[in-house]
Specification:
Layout lengths: L6 E4 L3 H10 L6 E5 L6 H4 L31 H15 L3 E3 L7 E3 L2 E3 L6
């Protein structure tokens, strides 16, 4: 990843992945940034009983269906694995293990506060 990027998406969850998918065809340089070491870890690290309350056939992201399963309501690990597979198959540039706590504007650009101006 270059120091400059068109769109920095903070969080590689369902919303971040969908936004990345929609921006790339327009020629935007997109980078997903997530504080966790793996995409999907925000789901993996939650309580074992966590399930989506919407049926799996309604939870797919553009271009890749949510996998079939025995229970109509996917568990946390199924969601995590789907997010990770989606980001990999879509080849989204990403920076994992990178927390974003603040950005500041400098000459029409956003920068991390610790970055040189």
């Amino acid at each position: 990843m270059s120091e400059d990027t068109d769109v920095l998406i903070v969080g590689a969850g369902h919303g971040g992945l969908a936004v990345a998918h929609d921006l790339l065809p327009g020629g935007r340089e997109v980078v997903l940034v997530d504080a966790h070491a793996r995409i999907g870890d925000a789901w993996r690290l939650r309580w074992d009983s966590l399930r989506l309350f919407t049926p799996r056939d309604l939870n797919g992201l553009p271009g890749i269906r949510f996998p079939a399963g025995g229970d109509p309501f996917p568990n946390k690990d199924e969601v995590a694995d789907y997010h990770e597979r989606y980001a990999h198959e879509m080849r989204f540039p990403r920076r994992l293990g990178t927390a974003v706590s603040a950005l500041r504007g400098t000459a029409g650009r956003l920068r991390r506060p610790s970055a040189p101006t």
